[in-house]
Amino acid sequence: MSPAALKDAALTALVALALFAPLVGLRTDVAPAGGLYLRQRWDDVAILVALAFAARLALLAWRGQRRLPTASTAPGWWEAPLRRLGALAAPLLLAVAVLLPLGAFSWDLGAFAIPAVTGRYELDLGILVLTYVMLGWGLNIVVGLAGLLDLGYVAFYAVGAYSYALLATHFGWSFWLCLPLAGILAAFWGVLLGFPVLRLRGDYLAIVTLAFGEIIRILLVNWVSLTGGPNGIGGIPRPTFFGLTFSLSGGPGTFAGFFGIEPDPSHRVVFLYYLILGLALLTNWVSIRLRRQPLGRAWEALREDEIACRALGINITVTKLTAFAIGAMFGGFAGAFFATRQAFVSPESFTFIESAIILAIVVLGGMGSQIGVAVAALVMIGGFELFRDLQEWRMLVFGAAMVAIMVLRPRGLVASRTPTVTLTGRKRAISGELVGEGHG
Amino acid sequence: MSAPAAPLLSLDGVSARYGAVEALRGVSLHVGRGEIVTLIGANGAGKSTLLMTICGAPRAHAGRIVFDGRDITALPTHAIMRLGLAQVPEGRRVFPRMTVLENLLMGAEVAGHDPAEDLEAVFALFPRLRERQGQRGGTLSGGEQQMLAIGRALMARPKLLLLDEPSLGLAPLVVRQIFATIRDLNLRTGLTVLLVEQNANLALRLAHRGYVLVTGRITMQGTGAELLARQEVRDAYLGTGR
User: Are residues B168 and B80 in the same domain?
Assistant: First the structure.
């Protein structure tokens, strides 16, 4: 054990001490008498610091034998198989997504009796994951394709949710009428945000969009007469299946009554599941189509080099505003879905952390990659649920996973980009190797 | 060679500033159809600013810019570029993560015609680009990137090609190839070129006419050969004096 290694480990322990002393050592608890008191947990701190010290020593000893993996934007070992399976992987994921609700029922097919393998919980989780897949794909248009760093995407989610909530509760308009309206309103707000930030890039753009997200949230909290303020809006009508409600009465005019089946609360959940699956797939389809259009190529060119775009006569204003508008529109659709699913909206659902999670999904997935974003949403949201038993520690797992990805794969899980056009018809994916982040 | 009666591009007393800095002070010049005109000058003389001002960024605050019989002084950049100007920006600025083919198609985006024919023409001009069509722009060598930038500009079928320092950072041999291609294009297709260069020797040999820009003003003009023969030009820009 060299003195240098000991010194390094001691430094690590010192950093750990500085971090854990306030975070773990001091804790406010409710006293038996009712008041708050400060509980001190120095023994826990000592254990953690000792762990950090030992782990650092072990890491140094291990690194002495072999080199640490370094940051790489080269194609990961999973990218080539993923691409080879590309024609298979995406449909496979899609098939799982489509078939998932069927597992919620037990099927009696003559000789076979298939029991229910998934339940209400899996379906709800599926809906949650798909909502984030859709939000990820929506934000991917703005951040991944057009390269405009947007930290306030949740604002459009909120606009969509409140649009549906207000239109449905005040005017009694149906979900299918309100859905496009919510999208249009969100797109309108996207353009409204787009105008003042036309000249901004990078950090400055991020700050303004961050502020925009907060402005919308604070507006929702304070405009009590319209939005109900912090109390939110409740009693939002649930969606209907072409006019058939999912009521448990089973009478005429209900889904169960019309089809002559036993009323079951899971019908609505399955319907909501397929609804968000359809919306997410629509987002994906539109993104893929647009990427091959001149507009989509202009977005990507804008991400690469704004000055070159100007020199080629591309209208930067229109290109940026359409990216904001279309990205926001899908956020609005997702928001309307969120409102109808929850039957209740309040500003609490639209805090900055939501924007951060959606952006993390896009960045971790690999900016601009559709399948990467879907996988990242599955891992982030699903993984978050998986570690629910860890309680407060799951934030730690989450943070560690983020750090690991950013160290090992700074360009995200799927860093390569598929060309939008080839003359030979053969599409070779372009690796992210040797291209610096942001500026190539 | 004398310019035809109505020049393709003419600048009349154009001034432009970057913030408080007066970068161009009453510049007048013209480029006739089928001509190669070069603009030489030292670092910071305003050569690139002049090209950018023609494109409307920064905007000229005095004077008039007429292209193809139309006053473009106040038009927005994207509208100017749609009239038949194409710019090869300084430092090439290819789109690094997009393929060579995608880069080229970006050039045709604004022109609104079927790019297939132009693509063939560019590939015929630069066979190297055909070989590398599936490769990312950022992985090309400097010379290939310059070819790509020129090819991209040609995709729009421009009447006037604005070239900003095509020799920047390239090996002498590659520079000569690029200049030969420009001459060839001009001879074959009658493409009009406005070339901004620091490499005055090569530029004046290539061009029919030239202008010398010093701190935002045109101080000399003449045919390429005339300017090459002038002692002041030789001293200041060719490093052959003394």
Answer: yes
**A424 Cβ under 8 Å from any chain B Cβ:** yes
Q: Measured between beta carbons, which residues in chain B are less than 8 angstroms from residue A315?
A: 76, 78
Task: Determine the Cα–Cα distance for residues B179 and A432; give it in Å rounded to an integer.
Answer: 33
How does strand B160-164 pair with strand B192-197? Answer: parallel
Q: What is the pLDDT of residue B241?
A: 45
> DSSP assignment of B15-50, as one string?
EEEETTEEEEEEEEEEE-TT-EEEEE--TTSSHHHH
**CATH number of the domain where residue B193 is located:** 3.40.50.300
- Mean pLDDT for A293-302 is 92
Direct distance between the N- and C-terminal alpha carbons of chain B, in angstroms, rounded to an integer: 31
Q: What is the pTM of this model?
A: 0.83
Q: What is the pLDDT of residues A153-162, one digit of tens each?
A: 999 999 999 9
Q: What is the mean pLDDT of residues B202-219?
A: 93
Say yes or no: B101 and B142 in one domain: yes
Domain boundary residue, one of B137, B157, B177:
B157
Residue B65 lies in a domain: yes
Q: What is the DSSP letter of A115?
A: P
Q: Are residues B11 and B24 in the same domain?
A: yes
For chains A and B, CB pairs below 8 A equal 104
Instruction: Answer yes or no: do B211 and B173 share one domain.
Output: yes
Q: What does the pLDDT average to over A29-50? A: 85
Measured in angstroms, the CA of A295 and the nearest CA of chain B are apart by: 9
For B136, which residue in chain A has the nearest alpha carbon?
A430
> Domain range holding B217?
1-84+159-242
Subunit contact B81:A304, Cβ cutoff 8 A: no
The reply to whether A68 touches chain B by the CB within 8 Å rule is no
Q: What is the mean pLDDT of chain B?
A: 90
Cβ-based contacts of B152 with chain A (< 8 Å): 312
User: pLDDT tens digits for A331-362?
Assistant: 999 999 999 999 999 999 999 989 999 998 99
The domain boundary, picked from B136, B157, B178, lies at B157
Q: What residues have CB less than 8 Å from A405, skipping those under 6 apart?
A: A364, A412, A413
pLDDT at A64 over 90: no
> How many CA atoms lie within 13 Å of A250's alpha carbon, on the beta-carbon side?
6
B116 and B205 part of one domain: no
Contact A326, A302 (CB under 8 A): no
Interface of B with A in 70-99 (CB under 8 A): 76-78, 80-82, 86-89, 93-99
Mean of the per-residue pLDDT values for chain A?
84
B169 and B236 co-located in one domain: yes
Chain A residues lying within 8 Å of B138, measured CB to CB? 434-435, 440
Whether residue B192 is contained in a domain is answered as yes
pLDDT given for residue A69 in this prediction: 55
* Chain B residues touching residue A439 (CB < 8 angstroms): 96
Q: Is the ipTM of this complex over 0.90?
A: no
* Residues B70 and B108 both lie in one domain: no
pLDDT per position as a tens digit, A402-434: 788 878 877 777 777 778 887 765 555 555 443
Written as six digits, the tokens of A181 are 């309206």
B80 and B4 share a domain?
yes
